[in-house]
Specification:
The complex is a heterodimer of chains A (84) and B (578).
Chain A: H1 2-17, H2 42-53, H3 70-83
Chain B: H1 20-26, H2 32-36, H3 46-49, H4 52-59, E1 63-68, E2 74-78, H5 79-95, E3 103-107, H6 112-123, E4 127-130, H7 137-147, E5 151-155, H8 156-165, E6 174-178, E7 189-191, E8 213-219, E9 227-232, H9 236-245, E10 254-257, H10 264-276, E11 280-284, H11 290-300, E12 304-307, H12 309-317, H13 319-324, E13 333-336, H14 343-353, E14 357-361, E15 371-372, E16 386-387, E17 393-396, E18 410-414, E19 424-425, H15 429-433, E20 436-437, E21 440-449, E22 455-460, E23 465-467, E24 470-472, H16 474-481, E25 487-497, E26 501-510, H17 518-531, E27 540-543, H18 557-565
Parallel strand pairs in B: 1-11, 3-4, 3-5, 5-6, 6-7, 10-11, 10-12, 12-13, 13-14, 26-27
Antiparallel strand pairs in B: 1-2, 8-9, 9-19, 14-15, 15-16, 17-18, 18-21, 20-21, 21-22, 23-24, 25-26
Helix pairs in contact in B: 5-6, 7-8, 9-10
Classes of the chains: A mainly alpha (84), B alpha/beta (578).
């Protein structure tokens, strides 16, 4: 499940936000501070996570800090899945 | 809180502008060069004035740029570095066969090459065309095609985006890629950048006159595609003097303008203003997080900070406690631009930082600040302030006559000339002419003036959407939406948003065979984000069977907007019958 979730979110980020196909991103890559995902684009990432994992994220939960790396996103989704 | 009775902040004294009343009475624009310390009678080339001139004055070794990358790598450039590397860029552009007057776009994140390449292009007499790095393919194509851009300076990752539209831009001969690494170059692509370039000690700058075109900034309107506002080398006294008097920059300041040079604030006050005064500035590349911004102020010792209401509201969300975790005591003056600064933000900044944000109002077309809260002036939270010395502003009635009655709304207008007023909309002469009526420049903003001469922003006079301090045209979004396979017709409006003032909302009628659902909504949102930009992406899509139209078939955005904002719908007599 964990690896599947990781790959799915990573694929979405690659498809939606990366121009350079050779750009390497992993669990620790800063998505927000590196500018890969900006504050406006966070909405589409939030919608993806909500739809894919049937969770609901408040504006406070979908913060720049929570979305900054794949690791922090995975942590957020897992927490929500555990609590919902 | 009532805006007019809110507590009033007061900025610190000992400001560059000195006696504000005397300035208002006596200042004339023909004294701007002298007041800003710029040479009378030329040279006028902005590239030279912001680099060589500072070096000639003995400040060559002074730090001009502290650059912090998105991965927090830090580089410093002296004014002499700016001078020599911009020389190298000027030489490179010239050797490439680019001629004075050619449009050259800069399209990249906030890297040193953006700033230095921009100055180098100006030195070579080119018309520099800054483009926001988040622009999608269609937004990019429209601007390159309209301007007939001959070359574009970009980064490796954005080169991929340019490749997708290259064949639709026949004038685009050169794609210059900084640090391409192992990227396989295609025809017309070449590598150049300060990482590999030899700094050049001498370059003969193009002898620009005051009216020589310098910068082409695109801005959105209600109708048609974005228009390129053309500025000249003679604009610099306006940017330099407003930087000196409004931002109050002094020789030893460390200044941070948070705007991206893809927008006019990022060039007028993120390049021209501070460097024409020989002031050190910080550039922070990468995205926004509260901690990152506060750390930047703390670690670099920022003294003057020019930011935007959207960012300030995001900082407010973290509370005063968030600010309290950092040492922000270096800050001595704060200013804001891009959208109206709400009174709560002014009051909050007084509590959080011990000083208020000073709101400023101006536009891409004005090139420099027009209505401002000057340091030392009594601030009325929520007000744009008063016209800058030498600027005559008014609100006009429907007959385009100034309204004398206090607090009565009308269209905000400014009386030309001033040095930085735009000289044309590129290839859109009629649109340019329509902005000037009865000797006034019509801003498209609604405002009122109180009994004491303070200006208060009321809203847009048209359908343009102000999101996060950037203008987005509804027509541009609606046109792009038609490119989506499911969209039959649409209307884009701004809907209220606590942080961004407005965000884009689209009403969409689907083609036969498509059913509204969440997946389709996401598909449409992401389609616009990639085509235009994240700013233009609808944050909400409402599927409708049909859109309200006039009997002549024009979509009544006004009706949709009024409903969204809970306002009176107004006259619906022209609405088509069901």
């Amino acid at each position: 499940m964990s690896s599947e979730m990781r790959d799915k979110i990573l694929e979405f980020i690659r498809d939606e936000y990366l121009d350079d196909e050779d750009q390497v991103i992993d669990e620790g890559t800063s998505l927000i501070t590196s500018g890969i995902v900006d504050s406006f684009s966070m909405v589409s990432l939030k919608n993806f996570l909500e739809d894919e994992y049937k969770i609901s994220l408040s504006d406070e939960e979908a913060s720049a800090e929570a979305f900054n790396t794949l690791n922090s996103i995975l942590k957020l989704v897992r927490t929500k899945l555990g609590s919902e | 809180m009532n805006e007019r009775t809110a507590p009033r902040g007061k900025a610190s004294g000992n400001s560059n502008i000195g006696d504000i009343d005397a300035r208002r009475r006596e200042f004339k624009w023909n004294r701007a060069r002298q007041e800003a310390g710029l040479p009378e009678g030329g040279p006028f080339n902005i590239g030279w004035l912001c680099t060589d001139r500072i070096c000639e004055s003995g400040s060559g070794e002074k730090t001009a740029l502290i650059w912090q990358s998105s991965t927090d790598e830090i580089k410093r450039f002296s004014f002499d570095d700016l001078r020599r590397y911009s020389n190298a860029y000027g030489r490179y552009f010239t050797d490439l066969g680019l001629d004075p007057g050619d449009r050259v776009a800069v399209f990249m994140d906030r890297t040193p090459d953006l700033y230095i390449g921009f100055l180098g292009g100006l030195k070579a007499g080119l018309v520099m065309q800054p483009l926001f790095s988040a622009f999608g393919e269609e937004a990019l194509e429209q601007r390159l095609r309209n301007a007939g851009t001959r070359a574009i300076l970009t980064s490796r990752k954005l080169a991929f985006r340019i490749r997708k539209i290259r064949d639709k831009c026949p004038a685009l001969e050169h794609v210059i890629i900084i640090e391409p690494g192992d990227l396989q170059m295609k025809e017309g692509e070449q590598a150049f950048g300060i990482a590999d370039a030899e700094p050049l000690d001498s370059f003969t700058c193009y002898e620009a006159k005051e009216e020589t075109p310098s910068i082409l900034h695109y801005t959105s309107g209600t109708t048609g595609q974005p228009k390129g506002a053309l500025h000249t080398h003679g604009s610099l006294p306006a940017q330099a003097l407003t930087t000196k008097w409004v931002l109050d920059l002094k020789k030893d300041d460390l200044y941070w303008c948070t705007a991206d040079p893809g927008w006019v604030t990022g060039t007028s006050y993120g390049i021209l203003g501070p460097w024409s005064l020989g002031v050190t500035q910080l550039v922070l590349d990468g995205g926004f997080t509260v901690n990152r911004w506060y750390e930047a102020i703390q670690n670099h010792g920022v003294t003057v900070w020019y930011s935007a209401p959207t960012a300030i509201r995001m900082l407010m969300k973290e509370g005063i406690e968030g600010a309290g975790q950092f040492d922000l005591s270096s800050l001595r003056h704060l200013a804001s631009v891009g959208e109206p600064l709400n009174p709560e933000a002014v009051i909050w900044s007084q509590e959080a930082y011990g000083r208020p944000f000073h709101d400023t109002w101006w536009q891409t077309e004005t090139g420099a600040m027009m209505v401002t809260n000057l340091p030392g002036m009594e601030i009325r939270p929520g007000s744009m302030g008063k016209p800058f010395p030498g600027i005559t502003a008014a609100v006009l009635d429907e007959a385009n006559k100034p309204i004398d009655e206090p607090n009565k709304p009308g269209q905000l207008a400014v009386r030309p000339p001033w040095p930085s007023i735009f000289r044309a909309y590129w290839e859109r002469e009629e649109a340019y002419k329509s902005k000037f009526v009865n000797g006034w420049y019509l801003t498209g903003d609604q405002a009122c003036i109180d009994e004491d001469g303070y200006f208060w922003f009321m809203g847009r006079d048209d359908d343009v959407i102000n999101t996060g301090g950037h203008l987005v045209g509804p027509f541009e979004i609606e046109s792009a939406l038609l490119g989506h396979e499911a969209v039959a017709e649409s209307a884009a409006i701004g809907k209220p948003d606590k942080v961004n003032m407005e965000v884009v909302k689209a009403f969409v009628a689907l083609k036969a065979g498509f059913e509204p659902n969440r997946k389709l909504e996401m598909s449409i949102m992401n389609f616009i984000r990639k085509k235009l930009s994240p700013l233009a992406m609808p944050q909400e899509i409402e599927f409708v069977d049909k859109l309200p139209k006039t009997r002549s078939g024009k979509i009544m955005r006004r009706l949709l907007r009024a409903k969204e904002w809970g306002e009176e719908v107004g006259d619906t007599s022209t609405l088509e019958d069901d």
